Amino acid sequence: MPARNPTGFDLKEFKAAASPSSVYARRDPWTRNETWRYTGPFSRFNRFKGLFPGFGIATVAFAAYCTYEHFFLKDDHHHGDAHH
What we know:
5 helices; single chain; mainly alpha
C-alpha cells in the first residue's frame, strides 16, 4: 500500500478537476457569464476584422496604378545608354 500524503493533496483529483471536460468545469457558475467574450461581435474574426481599415481598397488602387504605369507610361530616360 502506498504511503498516504499527509497534506491530503491528491494529484489525480487535481488533474481531473483541471481538465476542461471535468464535472467541475461543467458546474462552473461563471462559464455562462464568460461566453459572451468569445461569441458574436466579440469573436476572434470580428475583433481583428477592422484592424486595418482601407487596406483592401488601398491594395487594389496600388495594383491598378502599377498596372497602368507598366503598360501606358513610357520611360524616356534610358539610364543604361551611353551619351556620346
